[in-house]
Amino acid sequence: MGVLKNIKHENFAQGIAKGMSQDAAYEAAGYKQHRGNASTLRSKQNVIDRIAELSAAAAERAAKTLDEVIAEYERVAFTGMSRFLRVDADGNPQINLGDCTEADLDLISEATTVVRREVTRSKGEGEDKKPDHEVLTIKIKPVDRLKALEKLGMYLGMGDKSANQTTDRLADALREISKRGSMAPMRKPKNRGK
After folding, report:
1. Where does the source fall among the domains of life (predicted)?
2. How many angstroms separate the CA atoms of 154 and 193, rounded?
3. Could you tell me if 51 and 38 are in contact, meaning their C-beta atoms sit under 8 angstroms apart?
4. Looking at the domain assignment, is residue 126 inside a domain?
5. Which residue range forms the structural domain that includes residue 41?
6. How far apart are CA 141 and CA 82, in angstroms?
7. Of 58, 75, 92, which closes a domain?
8. CA distance 1 to 50
């Protein structure tokens, strides 16, 4: 259908589609206040069709936006540190941001670089006394995955306390695990053959 030829009718339809009352939309469109005329204009078929078209477009945009929000929460919630860390042959973790995309780097909430010079005392003086080496320490902190999981659960209707207590218990458990970190010792498997 597209834009209505009469600009006041178009403005009226846009006002209704935005949620205004028909009287408010009628005045906002440039007409003098008149309930009967506002009601008559609201019942014209071309105006009804235009309101439906505008409302459908707004609903589509809202659904797309909600889908984008959910997709972003999913990305944050389910992207771990493996995106940024590699383990070298000796088993030491190494930060590697070289393969990260801009979207991956957006998952880092904080990055700190510290250069520390370590000096070995030598018998020489002046210029002979130089640092043996520099130690570069890089720390990265990812965005809070737990908050993203909680918000994702809320959007998916999993946080309704009256409907589902399990999700709240899961969120509490995840929060507790997050506080403790990964410091807990691993259990050694029982030797069953002896």
Report:
1. Bacteria
2. 48
3. no
4. no
5. 7-75
6. 13
7. 75
8. 7
* Residue linked to tokens 């009718």: 9
- Structural domain contains residue 109: no
Distance CA 159, CA 171 (A): 9
Work out the burial of residue 68: count CB atoms within 10 Å of its CB; fewer than 13 is exposed, 13-18 middle, 19 or more buried.
exposed
Where helices occur in 79-194 by DSSP H, the ranges are 102-105, 145-155, 165-180
- 80 inside domain: no
Domains identified in the chain, total number: 2
Q: Are 3 and 57 in contact (CB under 8 A)?
A: no
pLDDT confidence of 168, banded at 50, 70, 90?
A: low
pLDDT: is 11 or 75 the higher one? 11
- The last residue of one of the domains, among 20, 55, 75, is 75
Cα separation of 149 and 174, whole Å? 10
How far apart, in whole angstroms, are the C-alpha atoms of residue 31 and residue 11? Answer: 10
| pLDDT reading at 160 higher than 80 | no
Please give the Cα distance from 121 to 103 (Å, whole number): 46
Does some domain include residue 163? yes
